[in-house]
Amino acid sequence: MSLLRRFVKEPINSRFLIRSISTVKPNRNASPVRRTTTEFDNLIYEAGNSGDFESIRRLLNTRVVHACFNTTSTFKFLTNTASYSPSLEDLRRILPQTDAGYTRKHAYETLIARLCKLNRIDDAKILISDMVNGRFGLTSSTYHPIINSLTKKNKIEEAWCVIESMRSNSIPVDVTSYNYFLTSHCYDGDVAETSKVLKKMEEEGLVPDTRTYDALVLGACKSRNVEAAMVILRRMEEVGLPVLYATHAHVITEMIECGYYALVVEFVMAYVGKDKRLDEENLGSLASKLIKRKRFKEAELVLEEMCVRGLRMGNGLREFYETNVINVTEKKN
């Protein structure tokens, strides 16, 4: 018993387990243990809640070695929305001590994204300053969560200040950064501001991408200009850009709102057969919207197309199809 007491010199608590897992040397003769991102996230969560930030540093290094990269849950122990928290100060202390390169940069970017989700924009900006001062590989993608968060909240002027901060730090403003502004303006149907952003992109020689066009289609639909949305879609096809499922959804929703029931069925049918998942999304969404509007005849045509092509239906659509299409057909026969 005395030998056992000498061996166990400290209580086995969560902090001790985390430290043991992150520092133990692997047995070369043993089978390698495959760890998961969830396991690492859970360990960091426990370490963060217990204030063991040294273990967090080790876990951030180790997970990259295991190809278990950071996720949106990595810093989930940060939950408060206060402008100051001791946990953030501890993280600012240990992050510069993580392995240089990708490990350190991605840890910073993951933490910035988490802070933006908590609406702690000022804290996220502090981390940007830390990366600038430490020369930790700051890129345009590092700023994206901040710009996205601000534009979503319609804090456009503040978002433009972030753009100026990028320029002052010699970080190029990319298409994605501008797309956040476009999406915000297009969602509000603000054609004038949308045009200004497009002009800035053109002046800087930036080529619109899929999300740029998606924003423009959204803007056209918000302005009740379905014809313009169709023109933009055709332009996307001409330049060879893939169309997002959401882009089709913008058009379908607006056509339904305008009462263009025959036209929206024709629009969706024109894309059938090119992408099975797109077919399921478009046809399923259209059928649901038509049923809600009590446009049963058009809905039945859409559901028949789904059945013929063997496409997956939701439970509600399947029940409607079996009740209103199959049963009616059997009674007629």
List keywords for this structure.
single chain; 333 residues; mainly alpha; 3 domains; 18 helices; 69% helix; 0% strand; globular; disordered N terminus; PPR_rpt; repeat
Helices, strands, pairings?
Layout: H1 2-7, H2 14-23, H3 37-50, H4 53-65, H5 86-94, H6 102-117, H7 121-134, H8 140-152, H9 156-168, H10 175-187, H11 191-203, H12 210-222, H13 226-238, H14 245-258, H15 261-269, H16 276-292, H17 296-308, H18 315-332
Helix pairs in contact: 2-4, 3-4, 6-7, 6-8, 7-8, 8-9, 8-10, 10-11, 10-12, 12-13, 12-14, 13-14, 14-15, 14-16, 15-16, 16-17
How does the helix and strand content classify structurally?
mainly alpha
Provide the gyration radius in Å. 27 Å
Number of strands: 0
How many separate domains? Answer: 3
Termini, distance in Å?
A: 86 Å
Question: For the residues shown, what is the average pLDDT?
Answer: 88
Helix content: 55-70%
Largest sheet: none
- Choose one word for the global shape: globular
Low-pLDDT runs:
1-24
Beta-strand fraction estimate: under 5%
Organism: Arabis alpina
Keywords: Repeat
Family: Belongs to the PPR family. P subfamily.
Protein name: Pentacotripeptide-repeat region of PRORP domain-containing protein
